[in-house]
Amino acid sequence: MPRGITPRQPARTGRHDRVARTTSVHNSGKKLRTTIANGHGTGKKSARSRTDKSSAKVGASAKASSKKSAYNPIEPGRVQEILKRLDELYPDATCALTHHSAWELLVATILSAQSTDVNVNRVTPELFRKYPTVAAFAALEPEQLQPDIRSTGFFRNKSKSVVGAAKKIVADFGGQVPMNMSDLLTLPGVARKTANVVLGTWGKIADGVVVDTHVHRISRRLELTTNTDPQKIEQDLMRIIPREKWILFAHQVIWHGRKLCYARKPKCVDCKLENICHAADKTWSTVDMHKNAKA
After folding, report:
1. Residue 193 catalytic?
2. Is the pTM of the predicted complex or chain greater than 0.85?
């Protein structure tokens, strides 16, 4: 090696990787200087840099595409498909409670809480034979009614509600069941579910959606709502179900809950809604199940 020329030693800090290194060689007695660079400061992007940016663009594009195609359970097309299939399954669904007047329907609906329609229908024929008018019920004390409705469960509270409703209807509404939501809600034992049953089934008035235990369960399984409070569920359903379908929809879902979509072990294999239902508690599925879609 020529005198006076000492090879540059690598820096201990490692910074030499980012700095151009100069080496000297002799060719025909002339010194040639060669610059070796690692891609920095050359005016050209390294292959790795180009690859990283390309990957970033692909990732951003994939995220944008994912957002556009994100699953929306209350998308109008899906809701319409649910309604269409319910129409095919239960075209003539109606209230299963036996009644011949608005008053009889009101009483039967109050008695149906925490009971079955079948059980209520066993009780009401004799009940209405024994007390044929609203005035006859209004003349009773709750304790007198209890033995007649004991088999429906919670008979003490139900007897107070039925007798109290009868007394108020006689005193404030001339013995006729009022056909508007605000007045119905003033009756003892009447909340929105009962009022909607009477208005929809007897009066054909779509003032809301009946939310009973079946509608509560199935609307959550179908991801039409994420709420658990009946009033909030009703508001969610009213926003996405066409008003002209409110009455029939509730009857159809109630029938669906009785026939196939049980609280435990639903018959998913026999259900026409199966391939658009992602419920987490399905017993059989051809589609992905969503952890938040459950009763």
Report:
1. yes
2. no
